[in-house]
Amino acid sequence: MPAADSDGVTVLVDGDQDPPPDGGYGWVCVAACFMINCFTWGIVSGVYLSYYLRYNSFSGASPLDFAFIGGSTFGAAMLVAPLVTFLARKFGTRAPMVAGVIALAGGFIAASFASEAWHLYLTQGVLVGIGVGFIYIPSIAILSQWFSKKRSLANGITSAGSGIGGVIFSLTTGSMIENISLAWSLRITGIIAFVMTFTAVVLTRDRNKVIQPAQHPFDTKLLSQINVWLLLAWAFISMLGYITLLYSLPDFALSIGLSRGQATDTITVLNLGTAVGRPFIGYLSDRCGRIKVPAFLTLVCGISCFAIWLPATAFGVTLLFALISGAILGVFWVTIGPLCVEVAGLQQLPSLLSLSWLTIVLPTFFSEAIALKLRRSGSAREYLYPQIFTGLAYVLASIFLFQLQRRRGKQSSR
User: What CA–CA distance (Å, rounded) separates 37 from 294?
Assistant: First the structure.
């Protein structure tokens, strides 16, 4: 039966519907969503950005111009969330996902013909971002429909796909650029993305007929809940740190005198940390608390920025930070689905996810541009201010999630 939270908003708990099977075909969906993460977020790494920055590939373009390419990818992916939610309600989840496959591959292939920076905005930035959003956004809701007790573990396993994809493409993209060309590297990336994501989309299957989710693109009723605002504040602020760290680390490695090969190794180790750490985060969340664990790990990520990244001047320390941060910096992507269920219930999951994606549009779009503005080019410590900015973002974000945990504890004791 329905239950009311302390804010007076009625939500449906998992037991009100046919309970998720916690397995069965759900594991096929886990494999499919793993592939989706691998060949969407795993491809959208900092390798191309680092290449553009260091080799000034397009005359007249500034570092800020290249930063907006990465930012527009993430921003566009999140900005289309209400449209994707609407299309999924009207046509089912598979139709927008197939459209996303075409946009993703088309964006990379079109980028291979770019001759000016603004061409990259539209292709490798916006079009690729739209493709990622159309594929990825429906997949998050699908997973939570198949799992209850193992919901965070399933999300952790699939989120690890972005780390595996990052490892693969960070190791191969540089070689492709050097031995074939930048243009053919982008084309090959697009072709691989098409084949793999299309296969994954075919394998996904939702349980919308059973769950009957609300699927409102912008449900303002949810905004009447304090818990929702705390969750969205955590999402917004933590994403400021996430994007800055993800895109700054390869160029930071070069700024302290490391070779291009060592910079590539750094981003590879970060992605390896992501692949290993995210399933473990999911397991811990299911066992120790789906709000407590991400709150604690968000704080740890912020502390590690000050304790390890800030004083890093050698290859070994940089690799250590890449491994640790890789495991925990993307805690948002592992836990946002289960957190939305904890806050609003399974029926409201697509609606709250849509709000969450919209919330992180601005930080994903502007974070790397902010980092590059904070960077002190030519100084002994170019990335000092971006490092401080990243650490503060994670520490501040954790406060909101700890407050959410405190409120939920009080509500449970009543």
Answer: 20
For CA atoms 80, 83, 87, 88, the dihedral sign is positive
What is the rounded average pLDDT of the residues 194-212? 87
Q: What is the pTM of this model?
A: 0.80
Rounded mean pLDDT of the chain?
85
Please state the rounded mean pLDDT for residues 240-269. Answer: 87
The residue to which tokens 């650029």 are assigned: 177
pLDDT given at position 46: 60
Is the dihedral angle over the CA atoms 211, 217, 223, 229 positive or is it negative?
A: positive
Place of tokens 């598979």: 94
- Token code pair at residue 12: 């449906």
User: 4 in helix, strand or coil?
Assistant: strand
Q: Which amino acid is at 346?
A: L
What own/partner pairs with CB < 8 Å and gap ≥ 24 does 254-260 have? Answer: 254/50, 254/54, 255/382, 255/383, 256/312, 256/313, 256/314, 256/318, 258/315, 258/318, 260/54, 260/174
Token representation of residue 410? 């009080």
Residues 6+ apart with CB under 8 A from 356: 231, 232, 235, 336, 340
Collapse the DSSP code of 60 into the 3-class scheme (helix H, G, I; strand E, B; otherwise coil) and give the result: coil
Choose among 106, 55, 105: nearest CA to 254: 55
